[in-house]
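Next up, sample data.

:::
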Amino acid sequence: MLNKIRRIYWNITWECDDIIEENYELTPVIDCIIYYVSGFNAKKKIKQIDCSTCKTAFIQLANSAPEAELINLKSRKRLIHPNHAICPFSKKLNIILEKLRCL
């Protein structure tokens, strides 16, 4: 999967189908995208909060999980790893949105 992400990252012209496979439940790429977006959302929320304790609740320093590969590849120290509790919430939200899309 890491090779697939690297190939897509370095390829300037890519299609959405190159990333997202037809079977959404089986693809680990979706997990990488959800993790990436969760980190982006956590970073935006941190900018709105003044409390340092509250800020640390949104992030974790590093992650070697497979879904963290996209952030690890693109980071350059500017992207953050979201807290371990944010991603399951985002995954459940994605499942709900997928079900609503199919209605």
Remarks:
- The chain is about 60% helix and 5% strand.
- The first strand starts at residue 59 and ends at 60.
